[in-house]
Specification:
Blueprint (H helix, E strand, L loop, with lengths): L3 H9 L5 E3 L2 E3 L9 H12 L7 H4 E3 L6 E3 L8 H18 L6 H21 L3 H15 L3 E4 L22 E6 L2 E12 L6 E4 L14 E6 L5 E5 L25 E12 L3 E4 L5 H37 L6 H26 L2 E2 L5 E2 L2 H11 L2 H13 L2 H4 L3 H5 L3 H8 L8 H15 L2 H12 L4 H11 L2 H11 L8 H5 L1
Parallel strand pairs: 1-10, 5-8
Antiparallel strand pairs: 1-2, 3-4, 6-7, 7-11, 8-9, 9-12, 10-11, 13-14
Bound molecules: iron/sulfur cluster (SF4).
């Protein structure tokens, strides 16, 4: 398994075409806007070498029998599913942001189960290909971007009906040695920090869209691929070299657009190429695994935010005030409810045909639907506790200014036994998580990542088994025969 340092060096050895704030960047690894996101992903390596986290971060590979990082693992039991969520909570606690590596892990497990079913039904050889590929990923301990979301253009139109056929990633050429693909993926978490990209379809496809029913893996530095970094609120604060004003100076999430401009993919890296009937299962399972993931990562970040609210209450002399204590307890209640759902959908998991375990999809969707709401309420409570200084506090430079600084240090102090820096730093952290760059991961990603709330409602309506519930009610109410209107009248 790679160390944190080896991971960062491995990115230097794979130069990519990256654009940030309108400029092509030569050295993306040391770019101040990008580096915090690399540090966050690197934490998945750092913790894997610490004895106290070995049981969460490492596991024996079901493919090679060797010790691997759990982020490259195929879940072999309910216990594996539960440990995955615990690992994600731990990483959220250590980074206070999105650490990005889960999308690949969730992609592996989804592709493994679906390629097995494709091979069983169609006689294809995708599953063995995929497992050979994944064995290499495990052995080399790689970060893989699980790339699902296409730009989608006019949402009312299917992929092949769009004015521009490239608005969903598609096959533009089939060759004896592989395929050529074109298109883009948007909202790509950690894409620039990845060694590989695992592309999956974004929708359930029909026959007319079979060239879009596509799953493959390519090196992230393959010819024809380039990246454009997504802006985050307050991202240029990272250029100010202020320890204080960024809120989370070490870590951050990353979202990017990936463009595939006629990229060649050899057949041994293709895991679906036209088998449109299986595209829906792949989307549903990847989304299900990632909806489970949010019951871990967002809870870990929630722990950080609750801790920040508690600390700032203390710096302001409010920690024993009853309504403040109630608000902190409400935050804990909401956060642990999210965790309970992440654990529940894991504990109710079951094996699929390939042997890889799948979460309970109904509970995973409940988990994610809660995630679309509860972090917003936790953030609202944190802002209420923090007070208006959260958004009116002058900059670090002002606090250090020879004229203004002494006045600011005099008037903006809280409880005098705590240094003013502590209060500033924690207020900036709350700002980061609820309004700034960190809010991208904690709030908007909670809303739209792994599918927007309506997609979870659709899944709930499909999986809720309302007919059974109705029968339960009729049994209790002694409704034996439902008479129709003419019978009643007769
Ligand atoms: Fe992992 Fe959470 Fe980021 Fe998804 S949003 S990649 S689950 S940390």
């Amino acid at each position: 398994m790679m160390t944190k340092e080896e991971y960062i060096e491995s990115l230097r050895r794979r130069p990519k075409r990256v654009f940030v704030l309108g400029e092509a960047v030569e050295n993306f690894v040391d770019h101040p806007v990008i580096r915090p996101s690399i540090n966050a992903c690197a934490m998945t390596y750092e913790l894997s070498h610490l004895a106290e986290h070995e049981d969460l971060l490492t596991v024996t590979s079901s493919l090679t029998g060797r010790k691997i990082n759990r982020f490259t693992h195929l879940h072999q039991s309910r216990d594996d599913l539960v440990r995955k969520v615990k690992m994600q909570r731990l990483l959220g606690q250590k980074t206070g942001c999105c650490f990005q590596r889960c999308v690949g892990m969730d992609g592996f497990n989804a592709v493994d189960t679906v390629t097995y079913e494709m091979d069983q039904e169609l006689g294809t050889e995708y599953h063995q290909r995929f497992r050979a590929y994944l064995s290499q990923v495990q052995e080399q301990d790689l970060v893989v971007d699980g790339a699902m979301t296409d730009p989608k253009g006019n949402r009312r139109l299917k992929p092949s009906e769009q004015a521009d056929p490239d608005l969903f990633v598609r096959i533009v050429e089939r060759r004896p040695d592989g395929i050529v693909v074109r298109g883009a993926k948007v909202h790509q978490t950690g894409a620039i920090n990845s060694h590989e990209i695992l592309v999956m379809p974004t929708l359930s496809m029909r026959e007319a869209d079979k060239d879009y029913a596509l799953c493959f893996a390519v090196p992230a530095d393959a010819s024809g691929i380039f990246y454009v970094y997504g802006r985050q609120s307050c991202d240029t604060r990272k250029l100010e070299e202020s320890l204080l004003d960024t809120g989370n100076v070490q870590f951050g999430g990353q979202e990017a657009v990936i463009v595939f401009d006629n990229v060649f993919v050899p057949w041994e890296r293709v895991f679906m190429a036209g088998e449109y009937r299986f595209s829906g299962s792949l989307v549903e399972r990847f989304a299900g695994y990632h909806r489970q993931s949010y019951g871990g990562c967002k809870v870990g970040v929630g722990d950080v935010l609750i801790g920040a609210a508690q600390a700032v209450a203390r710096y302001q002399g409010l920690e024993k005030v009853p309504h403040i204590r109630e608000k902190i307890i409400d935050m804990v209640h909401l956060n642990e409810t999210l965790y309970a759902c992440g654990i529940a959908c894991s504990a109710e998991g079951r094996p699929t045909g390939s042997g890889t375990y799948l979460i309970d999809l109904l509970l995973a969707n409940v988990c994610k639907l809660n995630v679309t709401r509860f972090p917003y309420e936790i953030a609202r409570l944190a802002q209420e506790i923090a007070g208006g200084l959260l958004v009116t506090m002058p900059s670090e430079k002002d606090f250090k200014h020879p004229e203004a600084g002494p006045y600011l240090n005099k008037y903006l102090k809280g409880v005098d036994t705590y240094c003013i820096d502590c209060r500033q730093k924690v207020l900036r952290l709350i700002e980061n998580l609820t309004l700034g760059a960190g809010a991208v991961g904690y709030l908007t990603e909670s809303m739209h990542g792994a599918g927007s709330p309506q997609t979870q409602r659709v899944m709930l309506s499909r999986l809720a088994n309302l007919e059974d519930k109705e029968q339960l009610a009729k049994d209790i109410a002694c409704v034996e025969k439902e008479l129709t209107c003419p019978e009643v009248e007769g």
